[in-house]
Structures
1.
Amino acid sequence: DIVMTQTPLSLSVTPGQPASISCKSSQSLLHSDGKTYLYWYLQKPGQSPQVLIYEVSNRFSGVPDRFSGSGSGTDFTLKISRVEAEDVGIYYCMQSIQLPLTFGGGTKVEIK
Amino acid sequence: QVQLVESGGGVVQPGGSLRLSCAASGFTFTYYGMHWVRQAPGKGLEWVAFIRYDGSNKYYADSVKGRFTISRDNSKNTLYLQMSSLRAEDTAVYYCAKDWGLLTGLFDYWGQGTLVTVSS
């Protein structure tokens, strides 16, 4: 199974400041079709998860442009350019290049 | 609008069985793969199972293989998860999630979840 490792475990951010979350996979997520199957999800408190980013860097419909994803191969980053109060929650990366689909352990983002 | 509504959760004894349902609406159910994802209390997300749009292929996490069965009834727009030989470690909120396509890993819609508690 592909192991997804996220750091840090938690992050406390002042509103308006940037935040960055790292995700590393135990195997390359680059498929022979040229796509890299890395996703980012956010689970806000008391809610179901929601997708933010697909295939490393594509924002899903309705996701604010303060969220951006980058990376390649086995190393990926989610960045929030200016954190807002509504961004609190747990962020998960996930790979789908290989079954079973696997998630990172999550990064909890709080507001200072 | 797209809605996924899970039901069937509850308290069950170890070794027991339970069937979860996920009623889908607001999209053409027969076109999309569907997943079950679970979250143990205070823990992260764990993918459980996937079924192709037509039910022809099913995939499972090793932790549930041989004990859980995913199925769907496209005439009823409903996804199921039959769980048997339940263990304490199966205690979790179970979410159904719609795949963006056939099997992309992009879960574009999630249900609200249903809690399964395995306890004597």
2.
Amino acid sequence: NAGVTQTPKFQVLKTGQSMTLQCAQDMNHEYMSWYRQDPGMGLRLIHYSVGAGITDQGEVPNGYNVSRSTTEDFPLRLLSAAPSQTSVYFCASSPDTTYEQYFGPGTRLTVT
Amino acid sequence: RKEVEQDPGPFNVPEGATVAFNCTYSNSASQSFFWYRQDCRKEPKLLMSVYSSGNEDGRFTAQLNRASQYISLLIRDSKLSDSATYLCVVNTGNQFYFGTGTSLTVIP
């Protein structure tokens, strides 16, 4: 099993550009989530999904969209990048919320 | 009020020392509790789940106190390889909440 994979590993965007961060898991997990990690802030939940076709907002959803058309994939879209979105983004999955999450290796995003 | 509060440290301890981390959570309805380890510039990885009866895994012991709403992690006989940031994680409903992490450096 590859576990949770994320692409790209690094990305530089200009303000106003849009892009999609990819996340995929091959463990047939129902629950998937996106976090951003900033210095001194810990991981903060952006969006999550409890199964295909179902998504919901986390703590910091503004400026991001998600969709969950399959169990395996959970892409995160930045609609119009802003410098405040410079961060490290982690995708995670788990069988459900009572179990631990497995994290992808992260995407380091810089918005200039 | 933050969902999860954690002392950021840093903790600098000599090899062989015992060190304890605590974490408090605000929602009494929280259901699942975990400790994760994160190495510099890497993804968090599960260290151990935390159960009401307490649980041990080698040199690591985790405790949960639901009445006082805190979880703890005890590391005995610290090794250089234990140097990392330790994150407490609490699940409430469909969301996981992370503490800001406690930095541990084990000194030779």
3.
Amino acid sequence: DADVTQTPRNRITKTGKRIMLECSQTKGHDRMYWYRQDPGLGLRLIYYSFDVKDINKGEISDGYSVSRQAQAKFSLSLESAIPNQTALYFCATSDLGTSGPNTGELFFGEGSRLTVL
Amino acid sequence: AQKVTQAQTEISVVEKEDVTLDCVYETRDTTYYLFWYKQPPSGELVFLIRRNSFDEQNEISGRYSWNFQKSTSSFNFTITASQVVDSAVYFCALSEWNTGFQKLVFGTGTRLLVSP
């Protein structure tokens, strides 16, 4: 089983609908992230969290919200989806340094492809 | 502010050719890490290498090699004798000490197409 699991893997929805992407991890990492990938733009950070009480905006947080329900769970919500949120979304984790070197290395889920019509 | 530039949007080669993917970074920090990730057509992101700013030794792993040069702020990736399975998008990324290595900043990626 994958250490970082994203659900759903693929989703097609309509403009205005509320969508939640879920992420769970078994790596025991404190840090969790949501990135968005668009062709030609690389990966851009949406939100990140260093523990259940810590939520931080990334560079493109508008139109998104997150919830850190537990150390192992970090969900991303689109309250009212719009077509330009069509993208590949990645959840990732990293180690704070308590069980390994603190380098910023990310461990990614397999991605969730979202299409907003 | 940290920044990573991958100027090559797409590279096409024929199998067995050598190919180099360029990565140039900007940082004011003296302590940082550089990374390469591979994204094959299936979409997942695969970690390839991590290098800290104090280690400028080149690294070789099979057909893959990395050339880290602080003088030119570059961390280039070379695939020797490319194969069709090397076709993927490759991302270079940077994390800095002054952010507690809290965030990884990615380049826009280079798509490598290796044809038979």
